[in-house]
Sequence to fold (497 residues):
Amino acid sequence: MINRRSFIKKSALFSAPMILPFAGCYSSGPVSSGKDAPVVSRTRNEIPNMAFIGIGIQGRGLLNNFLNQDVHVVAVCDVDKVRCADARKRVDDYYSRNPGKGTPGNCRMYRDFREVIARDDIDMVCIATPDHWHSYITIAAIKSGKDVYCEKPLTYNIAEAKAVMKAVADSRGGILQTGAMQRSGFEFRTAAELVRNGCIGKVTHVDCNFGGPSRPHRDYENPNNPAEGLPNPDVDFDMWCGGAPLVKYSDRLAPRGVNNFFPMFWRMDDLFGSGYCGDWGAHHLDIAQWGLGMDDSGPVKVIKSTSEIPSDPILGGRRQEGVQLVFADGAILRHNPFSTWGTVFYGTEGIVAVNRGKFAMWHDKACTPDDTVREAIQKGTFDGARKVAFYTRKEDGGSCEGAATAARREFLKEAKIQLYQTKGGHPADLVKCFKTREKPCSNEIVGGRAAVLCHLCNLSYVRDVSFDWNPESNTFANGTGDAKWLVRPEYRNGWKV
Ligand SMILES: NC(=O)c1ccc[n+]([C@@H]2O[C@H](COP(=O)([O-])OP(=O)(O)OC[C@H]3O[C@@H](n4cnc5c(N)ncnc54)[C@H](O)[C@@H]3O)[C@@H](O)[C@H]2O)c1
Fold:
């Protein structure tokens, strides 16, 4: 065992004593991020004991990843007992095949995450529930002295993002990684480093390309398959809903059994998610923040969409594209529909475009986006500046890595700004930081601020509003907006964040 205090000396980042507050009792009730909780010290295992909370398709992927890291998986928790049993079997099978890594039979199953949080021998939790649960469980875990890997978007709304950032700060040394793992990608780091080192001059515009906002809740009745709406005895659906309203069970929200697809209905539902703004925005807006150097700040103005493309009533009549975020230096970030590119930076001396496995750069000339430019940079036919690198698919020749490397060789050889480079991906980065007590790549500020951007976009669509924003305090500015838009009006069953 390593005493927490031995970590204090090693930590370059935390000057305050590394003694964590321990919330003690976990009956449901507000999980306030306040400083009033009693503070106790605790010891950590040298190899972290780890628990997984929420084991749907993403949680399963993370479990497989973390099993290969230097951790011991000792608990799995899901309100769906079939998924929970499946996860435990995966752990036992893994440890049977790899006896040096852990002990089969040592992993316990839980339905109620509070029992996991209450276990003092657990050092780290991975949270991959639907978004509406992220912040409550994260704050409870951080307050109990556990480190956290929480999926993106880090929170369900802006008030929760503030609460999570505060809870980690108050813990004086708690470690949190958000699952915005594009930051572990070579092509994304290259894009952000090119922009941050001024290789395309001053950034004037950014495009972030993903689907539309959340939709009003409805009963997900399927006339072709009424069985989808029958209660599922394997799921504690009251607990699945948590602080959100208790809605009618549907297989579309919480698919039966161990599924192999991403359930999209809760993501799109106002009550549980924030549409694609939270789902993919948490990736592409996050890369925009990285490139703009805005990880500890944000936009000062949100301009609502004026798109005239008619919206389906099932989408709540909400516009699906065109919200703009304006930053203090005048850079304008625009949300457009899914495209070849996830994030595109336009500067006074060129363009950098990036997506998973895709990278391009043009140089020499100022480039501003319009429909013609956007189409040309998708196809690679843009001739408004010198093409430095372009890779979107194998027909383009070469590789994504080759394209990004070409740009690095030309522009980043003596780069002053070098961005955080993970080794082995986001889960491995958290495990490293468990030991070093340094802040990981997508820490609570990075993840919390990215979540704020997601929710600013979403709320502009949902309420059809423009407003001014104070990125210091994460509040509305200049008499615009309404603070009530940043919170869930009511949390059910005392699950208040
Ligand atoms: N980083 C990425 O690229 C990426 C990709 C996919 C999903 N995600 C994120 O991962 C999270 C999970 O997504 P998913 O597609 O796996 O969803 P999912 O619905 O398949 O899985 C969520 C699981 O959480 C369980 N759950 C719900 N409430 C719970 C509670 N109170 N306690 C314990 N378990 C609970 C559900 O029963 C379910 O098994 C989401 O936040 C999503 O945005 C991230």
